[in-house]
Design brief:
It is a single chain. The protein is an alpha/beta fold and 252 residues long. Helix content is 43%, strand content 15%. It contains twelve helices and eight strands. Helix 11 links the parallel strand 7 and strand 8. Helix 1 packs parallel to helix 2 and helix 1 runs parallel beside helix 12. The structure holds 2-phosphoglycolic acid (PGA).
Length: 252
Amino acid sequence: MRKQIVAGNWKMNKTFSEAEILITEIADALDEADLKNAEVVLCPPALYLEMTTDVAFESNFKVGAQNIYPEDSGAFTGEISPLMLKELNVSYCIVGHSERRKYFNESHEFLKRKVDSLLKNNISPIFCCGEVLPEREANRHFDVVKNQLEESLFHLPEEEFMKIVVAYEPVWAIGTGVTASKEQAQEMHSFIRGLISSKYDTTTADETTILYGGSCNGKNAAELFSQPDVDGGLIGGASLKAEEFLQIATSF
Ligand code: PGA
């Protein structure tokens, strides 16, 4: 059975001391929580990864990074490599988030390199895909998502693809308070699973975790997660409050 995951993408939020408090609050709450089979992943800013993995070691969650540079080492001032994260016991890394595609001009080809370098270091990419509003309005959303998967993921052999988590994040829903309806989410998730099935096979498609992201919160998570092809969420704003994040994580 495929994994259900709730991952918190903190983005560029929280000071060191605030992060310390939030991690502790989440870890304490997780001790009591009934997660069923779901896995919780925290993706704090890189500066807080070591502190987060230290807490995770004694707690019930995994740690993800928000970004890497796709080389193990070298003259890349300011960057962090997957090899460094591996030694910290980081399990996941977000790749292809719309903010990085937009503000840092990350191309399909560059994302493909990130995917490859993470897998080489045994870190699972949480690969984000999704359309902007004009693309949905022009009924191009399926083509856009298909292209994103084809260009950055579908070069992988099956055994490597099995380590990918896909996150469908319609860009118009990210940070806007406008959530995709459960029907819109299910429709796209089922489309993505179909693409994986055609490229690989039904077993691979059935085993792939596909998360929804975009204004997912304590109020709408249960409805979204009840859809047959929605296996959890990638949570931005609502992951910055321990109580609401826990509410989401226990929404299965
Ligand atoms: P949001 O962000 O939950 O604040 O909409 C989701 C994301 O960007 O991953």
